[in-house]
Amino acid sequence: MKGPGPAGTLLIEDCLKKMIYRDGSRDVRRQKERGLIPPGAHSPFGDFPPDYLPNEKNKLMKKSSTCPSLLDKQDSNSFCLSAGIRAPNDQKPPPRAGAILRRPVLKTEFRRFYDRGDLPIQIYHGAVGGKIAWKVDIEKLDYHHYLPIFFDGLREKEDPYRFLAVQGVYDMLDKGGSKILPVVPQLIIPIKTALNTRDLEIIATVLKVLQALVLSGEMIGEALVPYYRQLLPIFNIFKNKNLNLGDKIDYSQRKRTNLGDLIEETLEIFEIHGGEDAFINIKYMIPVYESCVLA
User: Fold this and answer.
1) Rounded to an integer, what distance in angstroms lies between the CA atom of residue 163 and that of residue 167?
2) What is the pLDDT of residues 186-195, one digit of tens each?
3) What φ, ψ does residue 268 adopt, rounded to 5°?
4) SS3 for 134?
5) Which residues fall within 8 angstroms of residue 188, CB to CB, at 6 or more apart?
6) Do residues 237 and 99 lie in contact, with contact meaning Cβ atoms separated by under 8 Å?
């Protein structure tokens, strides 16, 4: 019996996180409060006027100018030396590079089109979850218009947008055939934008979609070779992002969420299906990559 699809797996993973992290630290609301994902509209009819909005909450409290300090900076050096503690210093430490820090996810075109009702999809509420009810035949869709919109929705973190975008991409790649190859240049910017979020969950989703994209038709792997300079820098950053478990067992291998393994699988698929120029271009962007074809 076939298990849940990629979009259904994400839903199951969200439910599992809610059970494990009961404090809500991994909840979508926390990410909205931190500004990492779009907050969404105030109501189904749009946003409220600014006059009707409540006052801002959770403002940071500022230190009062009359608040006494525990140590006087001028007389504290001798005290700190005698007490064996570090003296106060105004010099700031060097900043972090932030190469792997998450970037905020901006509002996507997929969300805008879905909220307007311009996409021919709806959730299939049946006994078996993880399906989309298409209002038209997928083979009759204009792939130049719809496929880039669905790829842009891969960086969504909130349902139903994420579920519809991920499952819609797999459905279109499954039924696309020869329509996919001419659209490849239009998919580069949405893929690059999703990878640049540096969100581990989004990157894992995009890597799986890239594997399905290359395997969905002939010549697609070769068509991606000129765009390696846009896609592979993020691969190079997260290539060594592996779980260091020692002698323990990773029971979640079936979920395929380990970025190091996913990146290695994706690069091997790129090399196998990318033609004779694939390896040298991958090696140029990721010097530590070793060929899986050359002996």
Assistant:
1) 6
2) 999 999 999 9
3) -65, -40
4) strand
5) 227, 230, 231
6) yes
Domain 6-37+101-244+254-285 has CATH 1.25.10: yes
Neighbouring CB atoms inside 10 A of 65's CB total: 5
Compute the distance between CA of residue 278 and CA of residue 228 in angstroms, rounded to an integer.
Answer: 9
d(CA 252, CA 195): 23
The 10 Å Cβ neighbour count of residue 116 is: 8
How far is residue 226's CA from residue 248's CA, in Å, rounded to a whole number?
A: 41
Tell me the pLDDT tens digit for each residue of 260-295. Answer: 889 999 999 999 998 888 899 999 998 998 888 875
Per-residue three-class SS string for 234-280: HHHHHCCCCCCCCCCCCCCHHHCCCHHHHHHHHHHHHHHHCCCCHHH
Query: Is residue 242 packed enough to be buried (19+ CB in 10 Å), middle (13-18) or exposed (0-12)?
Result: middle
Show contacts of 287-292: CB within 8 Å, 24+ apart. 288/239, 289/239, 292/268
Q: How far apart are CA 279 and CA 286, in angstroms?
A: 10
Cβ pair 202, 154 in contact under 8 A: yes
Q: Where are the domains of the chain?
A: 6-37+101-244+254-285
197 contact partners, CB below 8 Å, separation of at least 6: 102, 103, 104, 105, 155, 203
SS (H, E, C) 6-75: HHHHHHHHHHHHHHHCCCCCCCHHHHHHCCCCCCCCCECCECCCHHHCCCCCCCCCCCCCCCCCCCCCCC
* Higher-pLDDT residue of 198, 129: 198
CA–CA distance, 189 with 145 (Å, rounded to integer): 14
Residue-wise pLDDT for 111-132, tens only, equals 999 988 889 988 888 766 668 8
